[in-house]
Predict the structure.
Amino acid sequence: MKLVVLISGRGSNLKAILDARLPVEIAAVISNRPDAGGLDLARAQGIPALALDHKQYTQREDFDNALIEVIDRYQPELVVLAGYLRILSDSFVMHYAGRLMNIHPSLLPSFPGLDTHARALAAGVKIHGCTVHFVTPTLDHGPIVLQAAVAVRADDTPVTLAARVLAAEHCIYPKAIAWFAERRLLVQSDGRVNLRDDSGSEQTLFISGSPS
Ligand code: GAR
């Protein structure tokens, strides 16, 4: 199965996906920022790595249409957002309906948007985490595939909490992509995602750490 991965920055999720050696072909990695560190990671593995600079476009739709054109050259079955930090136009999302996945650093539907770790700490939650979901036009919304829960510690700062959540992201994103590639993800009409052929031994919730 062919994937295209979209990034904006350092690409640690991209690295986790590459390191997992999934039975998929990463046909291209595309960044909206020419200086994204993740592009070098891809190049080092011989994967086509391209930048399409959003600053060259005044209209979001125009940029997204150009991005669609580049992505579709590779004919991916799945487009993976791995730290792609741009809001997508509805037409982009609809073009890839059912085959556009994202990872978000919170337990959705809590804390969509930015600064999730600081907001979780400010809210006093005891459990935080990350979510892999299919993308729909509503920001950080859509059928949830997999989540990882991370215990919040009394002395956490946004930086320490982000580091533990990121480690959890690196566990669950490759897993979710593997399930998609195995055609095991069934999105129900009510938006729930079921895992086909689940013997009961597989987890759609990972729990990391314990409260202190
Ligand atoms: C990750 O924490 C990812 O969850 C987040 O950006 C970071 C990218 O890190 N994505 C979002 O906030 C999307 N709403 P990475 O470049 O090292 O993978």
Notes: Residues 158-181 form the longest helix (24 residues). The beta strands are 2-7, 25-31, 49-51, 78-81, 100-104, 127-134, 144-151, 185-187, 193-195, 205-208.
